[in-house]
Amino acid sequence: MYMNSAHHGNFIDFINMSYDILEAHRISGEGCYHLKFRVKTKVQLNDLLQKLLTYGNYSLNISVHQLKTNHKFIENDGLDNAK
């Protein structure tokens, strides 16, 4: 997701209220946010994409086949989390 504005509060409220959005990540690099969502129909997809346009532009990638799911949490991620 590529935001139109530096003020993301309304967008964050939208993603937290949206049933179809499964995950949302603030990212570095290309774009501002990575969203993972699931819809059942093309109509639902179009409706969600239209709503997202309120906040900015998007790049869409569609999964055609899931090869692996890993839900394990890695405690030592190599990042220095010391305060």
Automatic annotation (TrEMBL):
Give the top-rank taxon of the lineage listed in the UniProt record for this protein. Bacteria
Q: Which residues belong to the signal peptide in this entry?
A: none
Protein's UniProt name: Lrp/AsnC ligand binding domain-containing protein
Looking up InterPro entries in the UniProt record yields: Dimeric_a/b-barrel, Tscrpt_reg_AsnC/Lrp_C
Q: Where are the transmembrane segments?
A: none
Q: Cite the Transcription regulator AsnC/Lrp ligand binding domain residue spans from the record.
A: 4-53
UniProt-listed Gene3D superfamilies: 3.30.70.920
